[in-house]
Amino acid sequence: MSERSKTVDLLRQIRLFGVLTLQERLSLSRITVQRKKRKHTTVYEENESAEAVYGIVSGLVKTLRKDSPDRIGFFATGDFLPGVWPQRGARYEETAETISQTALVKIPIAEFAAWLERNPAAAAKISRAYERAIMGTQETADAESRGRAFLLQLADHCGRVTGGKVRVGIPMTNQSFALTIGTTKENGELLLREWHERGIADMGRSGFVIHDVEALKMTK
């Protein structure tokens, strides 16, 4: 498989670009490059001039804002990092850092903005997909499903199996957990309490401990 074909396939894996036709992805691949980031490295910084947009091919990335330290977002394989919309002169609205080793597709802002102008039909599809992602209309419609999917993502990318349990060393406050899965602090605490009472998972000062991964997958 040629390098161009690999890039086209990687773009297909990013949900934002999965709405494009093969020809549109082929055209977009001409301005797309692949990048790899080590664990705990910065992808971009809040308020810096936006150089590029990024999609996650594999790995896990967290986003945060200086004025809202509890508002942490987590993005995994197939996600588009929402730090900026592709327009000239833009600045990143948040900081993005890798939690695990991460592979990305990177598209320079200026070239992407010009590509969108030349391809209005593709631009409309990408814009609609971006709005849906920002509004949180993902497949996991309720907070419990989002919480389950989030914790399983953490386990998959950052988990360490010890003593038959999966430990995820990413500490969070109850508020951070709730904001991450798009619910209130009270509902987040209810979900954590339910997992604890059912012997599925616990969240403590050092992160999460998943006692029963299969039970977590099956929770409704």
UniProtKB/TrEMBL annotation:
InterPro entries: cNMP-bd_dom, cNMP-bd_dom_sf, HTH_CRP, RmlC-like_jellyroll, WH-like_DNA-bd_sf, WH_DNA-bd_sf. It comes from the Bacteria. GO terms for molecular function: DNA binding. One of its GO terms (biological process) is regulation of DNA-templated transcription. Coiled coil: none annotated. Signal peptide: none annotated. Keywords: Activator, DNA-binding, Transcription, Transcription regulation. Residues 16-81 form the Cyclic nucleotide-binding domain. CDD domains: CAP_ED. This is Crp/Fnr family transcriptional regulator. It comes from Cohnella candidum.
